[in-house]
């Protein structure tokens, strides 16, 4: 469904809270300095043909998220609401010739949607304001193919408004999906006319509904009635978004967030947020002095390995481009009654959670409202059971209160203080380290949590967790990348002491959090 491209834009700053711990002078020069300066982010690095391998690794280690990317990453859980004319035609992709009178959700309750999702732990929702069929969930001035021509609320309804207001009321982020492909618009295929039409609708969404936190474009692009495929003016669209909603991330066909590459909800076992940019972009970079850039296609962003040393050693530039993992609770993206018994199980949703949020991704889970305009009870029940288990699992960090020995590190207390703005790191130029946790008595656990301080960068390449069996150290589990969050499950372990070995890192590694947790039986 999605054609993935690589884009980039250097962003304006926002103010972050004061970081609690000051680093040593050597760390300040190599890492993000604490203090009261606005967090800028440095999400781009240009590679010179004269740079050595070591210099390329150093540059990669200093690429960091922009403020909007950091905020987005910290959401962890976001929800898709696929809802529209397809809900009533029982289709996944509409044709554009649907009768608007088919749209009539008699019990539509946007507050129910938002309350359910917030209770389940989601921090933001994205509504399909317009899918490929061109049917608009708001009364657009530029088309008759909208809710205004439907019997719902006698043509006076506005789904976008209701969802936006519910999100504001319940303090949850709001985003919009606007399909670049419109199968209803009569001049689709005419690049000039279509882009003007699209920009008009984009401005409607960005000016009439309060704060928009994410704009989601997919890559669908088909022929118009004239047999032509229009060229989408993405650069102009991005400028409109940056001007009208500067805090919004632009996702998938956009410069801030990339598609993970599947619609399964799973990230890679080694998910790097720092990826290479193609050589053809250097002329554009130089011409714009690396300011306000948008990046054009630069290779496959769906491969197994995007950011390892092998991938970046021949790069001409690097950017911070994090992954969003999307998946639907049901086999389809829109509601279909025949799929009521095919909602993903709680166990499957848990596995997806560990495979997305636990692999340095943001999970975008689709929860499609039904023809009545409600989230079905089967979906609600599953979400509540799933979220209850997640909350119970991570309610208590069993490493809390442990004494920590980190001979080659500083600020070890930051590992367990529950404050993401503080972090442990190594001294001098150490790229490996060992941290021993003497627990408060014997603890039983089966989940490891690690978090890097990504405002410094994503650096850890390999780690291992061991436990003391009373006579020697034994390996529990191991992994490669960490990023914003890494979660690993394993068979239950009971011990009084664990050891974390960071075996490889791009410059000084950082850790903002370390956790040991025990999954509940139900």
Tally of structural domains: 2
Low-confidence parts, pLDDT < 50 over ≥5 residues? 1-36, 279-298
Oligomer: single chain
CATH class of the largest domain: Alpha Beta
Q: What is the arithmetic mean of pLDDT?
A: 89
Number of strands: 20
The CATH architecture term of the largest domain is Alpha-Beta Barrel
Topology-level CATH name of the largest domain: TIM Barrel
The rounded distance between the terminal residues' Cα atoms is 36 Å
Task: Walk me through what this model shows.
With 522 residues, the chain is of the alpha/beta class. The protein has 2 domains: 324 residues, Glycosidases (TIM Barrel, Alpha-Beta Barrel), CATH 3.20.20; 115 residues, Jelly Rolls. 22% of the residues lie in helices and 23% in strands. An 8-stranded parallel beta sheet has the order 6-5-4-3-2-11-10-7, sandwiched between helices. Strands 12, 15, 16, 17, 18 and 20 form a 6-stranded antiparallel beta sheet that branches. Helix 11 packs across helix 12. It is globular and about 75 Å long. It starts with 24 loop residues before the first helix and ends in a 5-residue tail after the last strand.
